[in-house]
Amino acid sequence: MDEMIPDCKTSSRNPVIACLLSVAATGLGHIYCGRLVKGLILFFASFTFGPIIVAAANGASSNLMLAIVIGSLGLMFAIFVYAVVDSSLLARKLRTYQLKEYNRWYLYVLLVVVAAGYPTNFAHSIRANVLQAFKVPSSSMSPGILPGDHVLLNKAIYKKKAPQRGDVVIFTYPDDRRLNYVKRIVALPGDTVEIRNNVLLVNDQPLDRPLAPASALDFKTNDTQSMLMEENAAAYPIIVDSAKPQNVAKITVPHGYCFVLGDNRSHSIDSGNFGPVQLNDIQGRLDYIYWPAKSWSRLGLYPPK
Amino acid sequence: MKKEKERIYSQWIRRRQSVPVPEGFAEQVMGEIAKHTIIRHIDLPIVYRVLSSHPMQWAAAVGAVLLGLFRLFYITSALLIP
User: Fold this and answer.
1) DSSP type of residue A206
2) B25 vs B46: CA distance, rounded Å
3) What is the reported pLDDT for A44?
């Protein structure tokens, strides 16, 4: 009881301190100025990005989900800026302030520690289990994924369902586990795969590959032929270099493995070189291009629906 | 031996106290000290003067702000920086 502050104890509020406390922990500047409820609302509101992203990632992949992920981070910054500015203005107005029981240094330290620890742990957990950003360095997945594209990998998807043919995945490169590769799954366990003079045969059936319309591709050279591969009711463009015929002997994909190829078929190091990839090495499905290398029209869900 | 030391010290104190001090001596000395302190203070950079006024509070503030900025940077980099 001897630590209770007498009712008559007053102090002025310093706008600089209110600003600094708000930077340290969103809402703490308001608590310093005696606005406990508003401060706590801002404090917990700044944490909402985590649950929002997890909930969005567990829903169906869509452009809305990408907007929610980026929007939730934007909201966190907006709350941060609002708290800093508003607490400073509030402190300027308070010429005399009657100290409250919660105006204690150890409460401030506690909130700063929670504000620094909880969201950073949550963000780390999201990166490890839900969503992870990657930058694609090579053109092996052109024309769909271009070098320099920043993409988001959905790591939660394969906890709910198995990988499918046509999925673009990022996996740990089996020959050097420090590297990650991005490729497309073309065959699943039990399927037979063969590439005969640039023609892919899955279970002895050549996949339909009509010529892609020129308007669908912005990546084309004189030596290449662009085609649309149709898989799982979704078509995706590939590039085949007629000057470099690719041949892979017929194999059956073992249990627990899948066969992956780059969309730029003749310029890709993939299962045609290093063999099938373990399903356990797949980190997730590439769902979004959040920072396209060339045109912003490619921003959003991949493949676009 | 100890008693002898105390006797000599007491005698010295008594002699010191009997020395006549000029009028306004204490004010003069304190004024000189204050003047030198102010000159020294003005010579120092303003940042040092501000920081040295409340070093612990400033250290805590800078630490808290760094922690807050680290939080924002970590969250953004964990989610959107490859």
Assistant:
1) E
2) 33
3) 92
Residue A9 touches partner B, C-beta closer than 8 Å: no
Picking from B51, B57, B62, B80 by the largest number of A CB atoms within 10 A of its own CB, the best residue to mutate is B80
**Cα–Cα distance for residue pair A50/A213, rounded to 1 Å:** 41
Strand, coil or helix: A264: strand
Instruction: Tell me which chain A residues have a C-beta less than 8 angstroms from the C-beta of B78.
Output: 120, 123-124, 126-127
Pairing outcome for strands A205-206 and A199-202: antiparallel
Whether A302 and A167 have beta carbons less than 8 Å apart is answered as no
| Mean pLDDT, residues A284-297 | 89
The residue type at A64:
L
pLDDT at residue number A222: 45
Task: Output the 3-class SS for A92-123.
Answer: HHCCCEECCCCCCHHHHHHHHHHHHHHHHHHH
Structure confidence by residue, pLDDT tens digits, B13-66: 888 888 777 888 888 888 888 877 776 666 667 777 777 777 887 888 888 888
Q: What gap in Å lies between CA A70 and CA A84, rounded to an integer?
A: 22
Q: What phi, psi does A135 have (nearest 5°)?
A: -115, 130
**Cβ atoms < 10 Å from Cβ of B36:** 10
ipTM given for this complex = 0.72
In DSSP terms, which residues pair with A260 in a beta bridge? A185
**Across the interface, which of A20, A120, A133 has its CB nearest the CB of B75?**
A120
Question: How far apart are alpha carbons A258 and A71 in whole angstroms?
Answer: 35
Task: Output the CA–CA distances (angstroms, integers) from residue A114 to A53, A109, A228, A291, B61, in the order listed.
Answer: 20, 9, 51, 32, 16
Quote the crossing angle between the two packed helices A15-24 and A105-129, to the nearest 10°. Answer: 30
Other CB atoms within 10 Å distance of the CB of residue A104: 13
Contact A108, A14 (CB under 8 A): no
Where does the pLDDT of residue A212 fall: very low under 50, low under 70, confident under 90, or very high at 90 and above?
low
Contact B78 A17 (CB under 8 A): no
pTM check: above 0.95: no
- For residue A11, list its beta bridge partners: A97
Is B80's Cβ below 8 Å from some Cβ in A? yes
Dist CA B11 CA B5 (whole Å): 10
A137 to chain B nearest CA, in Å? 11
- Residue among A90, A83, A65, A13 at smallest CA distance from A302: A65
